[in-house]
Amino acid sequence: MISECLVVEFRVTGDDCPLAEASRATGAAIDALPPLLRGDGYTLHQVSTQDSDVGAVLDADERIRYLHGSQSDGRYTYRFLSKGRCVVHDLIDEGFLVESMRVAGGTEHHVGAVVGHDVLEGVLQAAGDAVGVGIQRISPLGDDAESTVASRWDLTPAQEAAVRAAFEAGYFDVPKRCTASEVAAELGISKSAFLERLRRAQSSLFGQILV
Prior knowledge:
Blueprint: E1 5-12, H1 18-26, E2 29-32, E3 36-37, E4 43-49, H2 53-60, E5 64-72, E6 75-82, H3 87-93, E7 97-104, E8 107-115, H4 117-129, E9 133-140, H5 149-152, H6 157-169, H7 180-187, H8 191-209
Antiparallel strand pairs: 1-8, 1-9, 2-4, 2-7, 3-4, 4-6, 5-6, 7-8
Helix pairs in contact: 1-2, 3-4, 6-7, 6-8, 7-8
């Protein structure tokens, strides 16, 4: 059994896959579940965005079949089959286990895991052979480096949790992908408590960064 698992984050530019082109055409941020490759070469996709124009661009793409759209809480979710191969598929072929995908303005961000250095070498080779792929981060899975954020930036654990939850939910995105109430509900606290923790955390961070 291999005991080492690495977290890898890639940034991809210049991809011509349907998602990248839809994001590039609309300027929208698109969140996607990991693609599922079928035996016939088509890929199953499920994506969500706040921009309704994404659906029209996807619908006009001849590589896409069976596009289905739905709307809930101000977000649009699309499910479809695609014949268009993305750069991330080359990484998956070499052993990259995609956990999250986001495309914004045509630039893709892929975060996932790689089991062992041998597999990592193959994934990095695939990345090197593809145009516009850059490595953002490589770290051991379960690395406790993230747990030191609070002490490194003089935040309380509650303040760190508020900042992390807000960031991961897209509260700081432009436009916002969630409301303060939604982040507070995720944390199990009131909206006012969340905003208070966030303000204190931001004050501490800015005070240390801008001195």
